Amino acid sequence: MKLLICPGCGQHLFDEEPDRCPLCGTPSNRFMTAEETEQRYRVATSRVTAQVQRLIVEPKLGIACYRVESGQDSVWIDCPAVFDRDIERVDAILFTHRDFMGACNRYREVWGTEVYLNDLDTGHRFARGHFVDHKVRGDFKRGRLRVITSVGIRMVSRYTSTTTCCSCATTCWWKARA
Ligand SMILES: [Zn+2]
Question: Which CATH number fits the domain that encloses residue 169?
Fold first, then answer.
């Protein structure tokens, strides 16, 4: 499967090369290969609380992600846009939405990390190239984490009155509470 990565937003484009990134509009002549991103970027981690760490790509690419200790194992809320083999292994990735699934295929392949995505998102163009182990249709528990999937389609901005996800400022489909 051919893969190109947008340097504007971190979107992974599988088997397609549009003139511009469908998410942020960056022209295709700037797209990178996965190998280029692994050389150019790294994933930096900082602590938020005793159970939560924040992961960002440096130089900045894509969205911030969070590592949460569930008491049973470790999960990420969303996934960095690039693969960095030097960071700590994680057991599962829980996606808040399908738009920035990042390098989850590589983490899954190298670490055996399980990927969770709301079933409503699995058929979407941006999700199609990513392997999903668990197509989620309802709330579930993982260790001490309670993972809440809001019923509905699409994006973050539709859910403005709910609690925040693991102390990040984003309101999203998954709400994880230790
Ligand atoms: Zn983009």
Answer: 3.60.15.10
Q: How far is the CA of 176 from the centre of ligand 1 (A)?
A: 27
* Tokens 């990042």 sit on residue: 102
DSSP 163: P
In a domain, 159, yes or no: yes
Angle formed at CA 155 by CA 139 and CA 42, multiple of 5 degrees: 90
2 Cα–ligand 1 center, Å: 17
43 Cα to the center of ligand 1, angstroms? 19
Q: Which of 11, 5, 6 is nearest to 98 (CA)?
A: 11
pTM of the model: 0.84
Structure-model confidence comparison of residues 100 and 90, the more confident one: 90
Going from the Cα of 49 to the center of ligand 1, the distance in angstroms, rounded, reads 31
Compute the distance from residue 29 Cα to the ligand 1 centre, in Å. Answer: 12
Total tally of structural domains belonging to the chain: 1
